[in-house]
Amino acid sequence: MKPSTLRIGYRYRANRLASNYNAIVIGSGMGGLTTACLLSDLGWKVCVLEQHYTAGGYTHSYERNGYEWDVGVHYIGDVGARTRTRRMFDFLTDGKLKWSAMDEEYDRFYIGEKVFCAKAGRKPFRDNLVNQFPMEVDAIDRYMHLLSQAGAALSAFGARRVMTPWVRRLLAPYFKWKMPDFIFRNTHDVLRELTDNEDLIAVICGQWGDMGLPPKQSSFMVHSMIARHYLYGGYYPIGGSWKIAHYMIPKIQASGGEVFTYAMVKEIMIEDGRTVGVKMENEHEIECPVVISSAGVDITFNQLLSDSVVSESGYRGLLPSVRPSSGHLCLYVGLKATAEELGLPKTNFWIYPSNDYDGALKDFTVDDKAPFPVVYISFPSAKDPDYLNRHPGTATIEIVAPAPYDMFSAWQDSTWGKRGEVYEELKTRLSARLLRHLYEKLPHLEGQIDYHELSTPVSTKWFAAYRHGELYGLDHTPERLQQDWLRPKTNIKGLWLTGQDILTCGVTGAMMSGLLTATSLVGGRQISPLLKRIFK
Ligand SMILES: Cc1cc2nc3c(=O)[nH]c(=O)nc-3n(C[C@H](O)[C@H](O)[C@H](O)COP(=O)(O)OP(=O)(O)OC[C@H]3O[C@@H](n4cnc5c(N)ncnc54)[C@H](O)[C@@H]3O)c2cc1C
Prior knowledge:
The protein is of the alpha/beta class. Among the domains are: 202 residues, FAD/NAD(P)-binding domain, CATH 3.50.50.60; 113 residues, no CATH class. The strands form five sheets. It has a seven-stranded mixed beta sheet with strand order 8-7-16-17-18-15-19, with helices on both faces. α1 runs parallel beside α20 and α20 crosses α21. The longest helix is centred in the N-terminal third of the chain and has 25 residues. The radius of gyration is 22 Å and the shape is globular. The termini are far apart. Bound molecules: flavin-adenine dinucleotide. Flavin-adenine dinucleotide binds next to α1, β15 and α20.
C-alpha cells in the first residue's frame, strides 16, 4: 500500500532549531497555528512543535491509493461574505485560501422514514422550517429570536475568557445581562419550551454531530453557535482542508519561526512555578519562557505537566469538572469515477434511526450492534472544484459515526496497521454497516467503490494524540461551558492554553481561541492595531 505523501511542515531535528524563540506552541492545529501566526505578525519568533508527520491537526488531509481525504473538516460556515470569520481566514492565509459554496440545501436529515433539510440564508432557513412544519410558525420564530440573542451571548462568552478574575467579577452584572441563563441550559429543555413537536426539535438539532452531543446532553450555547455558524450555508476550502495550514505556515516563517513535525513534546518544564521550556520525546530540551499548549486540556494537564505542578497550581481539583468527548469512526471511500459522473451532491447527509437522538446514542453505547445513532455522509470531492486537478477521474466520500472509545480500548497500546485479526474483523463488520447506509441513500454506488479504509478512536489516538480518541476535545456539556478556568492564561507563569478546549470545537472555534490567546498574551494595547488591520 502506497503511504500518504501529503505532508506539510519541517521535520524536527534538534539541530534544525533556531535559538531564542519568543514562544513555543505545542500542536499545529487551528488553535496553535492561529496563535503562532498572530504573534509572528507582531514580530515574535515562534516555534510550533507538532507530534504528527504533518501539520494542521484536525485540518490535515492525507493521501492513499491515489485519493485524498480530510480528517476533521467537512464544511465551514460564515465565510461567504466579509464576516469576522472570513476576515480572520483571509488574514491568516494572506487571502490565498478560497472557498467553494455547497448546495443551497447544505444539510439533509433522514430521520427514521422522514426527510428534512437545512437551507442557506437566514430567511430561506426559517421559511424552509416553516414549510416543513407549517403548524409551528410561532415556535420557529421564537427559536430564530433565541439564536439572535445567543449571538450577543457568544461574543460576551469569548470576551470573558480573556479577562482576569477580578475584572470578570466587576463586570458580573453586565455578563448576566448579556448571557441569559437559557444559553447554559441543555438544548432539549430550551427547545421543549418552544414546542412539543419532537420532529421539529430533531430537525433543529440535526447537526448535533458537529459538536458530538445530542440535545438532552448538549449546552444550548454550543447548539446555537453551530446553528448560527451554518445559517448562511456551508463552504469548503478549495484544494482541501490541508491548504489552511499550508497557507498559514509562511506567516510564521516570515518572522524567523518554524513549524516542526515529528516533534512530540514529552513534558512542559516548570521551575519554581515558572515555565522554562519543553522536553521533547528524545529528551532534548528547548528553553523558552513562554509555552502555549494547543494539545488540549487533557494532554496538557494529565500528560505534559508533572503531578505536583498540577496539584500546586490548583488544576487537580478542577479537572473532574470536564470529560473527554466521544470517539468516532470514519470510513474513507475512493471511487474510480468523478463526483459529476456519480451524481454526488454538495450536501451532507445525516441519517438517524429516529427523532430520539439521545435514546439512540445511549442504546449504541451499551450495545454496539444497535443502529448507529447517527451516520454522517460527506462528499468532499464534489465540494472541491480543484479536486480533479489533483486526482483526475476519481471521487471520494467520507462516512462518519460516533463510537465510544471503550469499544476499542483493548487496542489502545497497539501499533497502527498491526492490530491483529480481531480488530480487522471488527473494522470489516463496521465498514459494511456504514456502507449499507450509503447504498440505501445512493443505490447506484453499489459496485462502484474502489477502495475504503476505516479509522477508529484508536487511529485518532495514534495520529492526533488524543488519549481517548476524542473527536472534539472536551465534551460540550452545559457544565463545561461554565468553567472559567478554561481560558488562555493558566495559573502557571508562562504557560498558556489555546485550541478548541478553551472556547468551542470547530475550525472557527479553534481559530477564535487562537485570537483570544494572542490577545491575552500581548494585551489589548499591542493587539489593537493588528485587530484593526484584520477586521478593517
Ligand atoms: C471527524 C471530524 C470532523 C470534523 N468536521 C468539522 C467540520 O466539518 N467543520 C469544522 O469547523 N470543524 C470540524 N471538526 C472539528 C475541528 O476539526 C476541530 O474542532 C478543530 O480543528 C480543533 O483544532 P485545535 O487546534 O483545537 O486541535 P487539533 O486540530 O486537534 O490540534 C491539536 C494538535 O496538537 C498535537 N499534539 C498533541 N499532543 C502533542 C504533543 N505532546 N506534542 C506535540 N504535538 C501534540 C496534535 O497532534 C494536534 O495536531 C471535525 C473534527 C473531526 C474529528
